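Per reviewer request, we include the raw input and output of the structure prediction for the construct analysed in the revised manuscript.
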Amino acid sequence: MTLVPRPKAVELTGLSQTTLRKYAENGTIKCERTPSGYRLFDTVSLATLGKRQAPKPVTICYCLLSSSKQFDDLARQVAYMHSLFPEAEIIFDIGC
């Protein structure tokens, strides 16, 4: 386990000092304290920060009808949106 001081950890990660401190306090990254109280951050723990999975973006399609008399059109709109964006979440609304 290689330990680096805070300035080097900031340089390696691009995170702020405050973010590193909070991550160390909540256990997201490992760190040790020197006898004088300075934090030394584990480089392996810092490297895993970039490997965490970002949330997958969601595509949302919105279909709108101006009245309930056009309800058949809604089914066509939804089918068309599904054909263009198969993974999308479809939201629809019927106006007044």
